[in-house]
Amino acid sequence: MSNKNNSENVAYNELAIRYNLSVVEYVRTSMAALSGCTAGLLGLTGLYGAAFYIFAVTSLWLMVLFKAGFKTWKSYFISRKGLLTNGFFGHLFTYILCWTFIYGMVHVY
Amino acid sequence: MSGGILYRILVIVGFMSLFHSAYSAAQHRSYLRLNELDFLGLPLDISIQAILSLYIIVYGILQVSGTFKEIKASAELDNKSWGTFRNIPSFYMFAHRGKAFSKFYNPVMSKSYLEEVE
User: Fold this and answer.
1) Quick one: closest CA in B to A109, which residue?
2) What is residue A108's DSSP assignment?
3) Cross-chain CB nearest to A76 (options B22, B47, B70)
4) Cβ contact A27–B61 (<8 Å)
5) Residues in chain A within 8 Å Cβ distance of B18
6) What ipTM, to 2 d.p.?
7) Mind listing the pLDDT tens digit for each residue in B66-104?
8) How many helices (H) and strands (E) does chain A have?
9) Domain boundaries, chain A
10) Is the pTM of this model over 0.90?
11) Contact B61/A30, CB-based, under 8 Å?
12) φ and ψ at A12, to 5 degrees?
């Protein structure tokens, strides 16, 4: 109980939070574009592509947690669930754009 | 945007590898078309190369994109002492009257000396 109270009263440095999230956003955008390219290259169609996107997002999440340290991530991010779900659908469109483009480049023409 | 040159090279190598696998896939596709075969999926080596190079690029970008900062507000202050916070440059005093107690102090009595300094 006392531990819970402690975590509620922590003062955060907003600039550092924003900086960390912008780093993650940068990496996620690149990941969406690149995994879209890879999905198009592999010739995935339909739900396989969506499954590949979920796979890519989850593995990126694990890589970010690995970079922050699996035990020390709490000193860099407030919640790691938010790290996984933030901008999921926003980046999905980037992913689909690259996916269809590279699929057309490699497999159609 | 910190990060070693090593990771930048890693990103470039990954991009080249991804492009190479894309080219291989396109060539495989044209080979199938010329022989009038059906597309049953890419050869395993091209798929493995594509996924591996994706991971190489993402790992490189993750390292290049910069280090995370501690989000606790007190994180930057932990290594500083109280003396740092009490240091106020506006209140520095270079002409303290206490120097009159020194043995080597010889007072300037005339006012004209002050005017010469200025």
Assistant:
1) B26
2) I
3) B70
4) yes
5) 34, 37-38, 41
6) 0.84
7) 888 887 877 777 777 777 778 888 888 787 788 888 888
8) 5, 0
9) 14-107
10) no
11) yes
12) -105, 150
